[in-house]
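chain below, 233 aa
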Amino acid sequence: MFNPKKVEEVIGIVFKDKNILKQAFTHRSYLNEKPDQDLSSNERLEFLGDAILEFWVSKTIFDYFCKYPEGLLTNFRSQVVYTQSLADIAQGLNLGQFLLLSVGEEKEGGRENPGLLANTFEALIGAIFQDQGLKVTEIFLEKNVLPRIRVVAKKKTLKDYKSRLQELVQDYHRVTPEYRLLSSQGPDHDRTFLVGVFINDRKLADGQGPSKQKAQQQAAQKAFKKLTLSKKN
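prediction:
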């Protein structure tokens, strides 16, 4: 039995519409076993919550870290909003206990499933926004997601791959990686760039993307992983 009061105690928010709170915790598998109940799954709320979360995290790190370039901000955001990160936040709130699941999903460990927990957390964000508005949603995110942002900010892995590759190459080879445009295809409004990264005229990897910067990042990522793997072996 879903108990909205217990959920409200955990999240610190009293809902006007208890049904939307219940929807945030309703997995689609539950509906398959309860066709007679007038319920909707949490997928629409998850869609909304995902967009709100990405916007809020983007704006927060944009404001807090004024000197970070676009590539680093993108990497930063991805480390905050990826599945396991959101699942950790959901587990910290013990949201899994409130999930409405099918018997099969329950037996398969759905309450501890990182994907389900992450989706539920996003659905909860969407439900808070729908029921309480943006201000309350932002307070909830500041309380529950801002600590995660602070943790990520201290990680060495936060640096983008171009920065990490440059440090690695300079440590081992005493040179700076060189990026060369290998080709570009397509019309001006929809161009694809192929870029190679070289050390002493030896190509380590290549990458492609809709801009030279994104192509360079992909090439750097491939080269970094290739070099770090070779160092381990």
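The first helix runs from residue 4 to 11. The CA atoms of residues 184 and 193 lie 4 Å apart.
thats it, cya
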